Amino acid sequence: MNLIKSKHSTDNTKRAHDYLDEIYTTVVKRNYSEKEFHQAVALFLRSLVPLLAKYPIYMEKGILEQITEPERLITFRVPWVDDNGKTRVNRGLRVQFNSAIGPYKGGLRFHPTVDSSIIKFLGFEQTFKNSLTGQPIGGGKGGADFDPKGKSDNEIMRFCQSFMTELAKYIGPDVDIPAGDIGVGAREIGYMFGQYKKVRGAFEAGVLTGKGIGYGGSLGRKESTGFGTIYFVQEMLKDSGFSLKGSTVIVSGSGNVSIYAMEKARELGAKIVACSDSNGYIYDANGINIDTVKQIKEVEYGRISEYIIKHPEASYSEGCGGIWTIPCDVALPCATQNELDEQAALTLVRNNVKAVAEGANMPSTPEAIDVFLENKVLFGPAKAVNAGGVAVSSLEMAQNSMRLSWTFEEVDAKLQEIMKNIYQSCVDAAEEFELDGNFEAAANIAGFRKVADAMIAQGVI
């Protein structure tokens, strides 16, 4: 691990280095094939040297030994029948990582790459992301290696029903509250909620978030991760004398996060010139028509290449990684993990990028992050930047508990306040530990302290 330096006592700093190396070695040995989980833990641990050097109690209480091991990992078989009558089988997973500050909370991902490494890395990150929101929610994550692409609506419904029949044993409004993620939108949440009602024989609205508005969902939930991303970027740019107004922005991905980040950025005066999907990317020098992207992705479930049929002045290129070669002021990786590597980061720096903010979970490799930090590019880490989604999920839980609904404006105002508070938490931690604007380390420290302090207070040692 490339551990960051501490300005505190040499003895405690050396002790922290040795301790963190020992923790990481144990994590790799215990989870030897889980590369994504290793990466998430390494990125996290390397931030903690200044904190442990100043407050060695976290070493003395063995908090990291506990916090890097999930409280529970559940795997289960998901059999379902396709439209040809053939029985298919997928694997479902749910990690309940940490409940020190509240019930487990985190999304469900349906994608062929889903395995224990992916789910554990996401659950680990979710713990500290949820902590940063200031909401009383712990960390969890789940999903299945099911690919919704190319499946009929009935096939997706049957899969979701089978998945929830098993998952329902382990979740509840005060235990574990899943939401959506990649491959899981309002349709899938609806099918799973319907099945949960059948299994449990009760209308427990707070068991899932991201629901339809007509049965307990929150206004603003669909937009929240993308909007929250831009609210964080807005604060980060403002503090450095920049503005989104008049900026050129590129956004990887074209799902919920990407679409609503683009929409809010445009509303604030930015010009979005590129977005992508897993096949390739589009470039429109006049500015992406977001309504067209919504039609393709949210209504037709099509590919981003179809954009140029309606906008022939734009161009489409195969290979989504090429999007990072487009000059821009702000780059928003909003697609998937490790999509932005060292070479892409160097290209962005050469093209004078001012800010990079992670709308997706762990989209930048460690080497890419180092490039941004070394070149003084404003860098917003995922657990801070994309926390808007889970923040509004928590607001949905609150509305369900109170049996009421807030207006879109009320939810959006609360979201803006939460994102400002997250940004300020990063600023405060960076100042306290003299991190020179390193918000990656600052977010990790701020998120960790709340969870660790709760664990100590509860005697979970």
From TrEMBL:
The keyword Nucleotide-binding applies. Residues 218-459 form the Glutamate/phenylalanine/leucine/valine/L-tryptophan dehydrogenase C-terminal domain. SMART domains: ELFV_dehydrog. GO terms for molecular function: glutamate dehydrogenase (NADP+) activity; nucleotide binding. Substrate binds at residues 105, 126, 129, 180, 393. Keywords: NAD, Nucleotide-binding, Oxidoreductase. The record marks 181 as: Important for catalysis. GO terms for biological process: glutamate biosynthetic process. The keyword Cell membrane does not apply. SUPFAM superfamilies: Aminoacid dehydrogenase-like, N-terminal domain, NAD(P)-binding Rossmann-fold domains. One of its GO terms (cellular component) is cytosol. NAD(+) binds at residues 225, 256. The active site is at residue 141. It holds the Pfam family ELFV_dehydrog_N. Homohexamer. Belongs to the Glu/Leu/Phe/Val dehydrogenases family. PANTHER family: NADP-SPECIFIC GLUTAMATE DEHYDROGENASE 1-RELATED. This is Glutamate dehydrogenase. It comes from Oceanobacillus zhaokaii.
